[in-house]
């Protein structure tokens, strides 16, 4: 990731977990409610996909990014990049505005 707005990370872990609960709940509910409600329950699918930002894997990648933000720092020299633990006062929050959601 090169900038603060790259990736699928949320602004907080609780916000990301809430999005996952809504997303996965909508996806599971849309199929689980078919016997009770009929095909109308499939209207929950778009809400689930929207909450997960398109796919469950995108949400999972965002979870990893949200948990690890500010803990690792990438540095590139002579065409070779390495990841190192960030300094105590060096976090991504100081890098600038972040993507909401």
Q: Could you give a quick summary of the protein structure above?
A:
By secondary structure, the protein is α+β, with helices and mostly antiparallel strands. It contains four helices and two strands, in the order H-H-H-H-E-E.
The parts where pLDDT drops under 50 for at least 5 residues are 1-5, 93-98
Order of H and E elements: HHHHEE
Major sheet strand order: 1-2
Q: Give the overall average pLDDT.
A: 80
Helix content: 40-55%
Count of folded domains: 1
How many angstroms separate the termini?
Answer: 17 Å
Radius of gyration: 18 Å
Number of strand elements: 2
Which geometry do the CA atoms define?
A: elongated
Indicate the structural class: alpha+beta
Q: Count the DSSP helices.
A: 4
| Main sheet record | 2 strands, antiparallel
The fraction of residues assigned to DSSP E strands is: 5-15%
List the helices and strands and how they pair.
Blueprint: H1 13-32, H2 34-37, H3 45-51, H4 56-68, E1 72-77, E2 80-85
Antiparallel strand pairs: 1-2
Helix pairs in contact: 1-3, 1-4
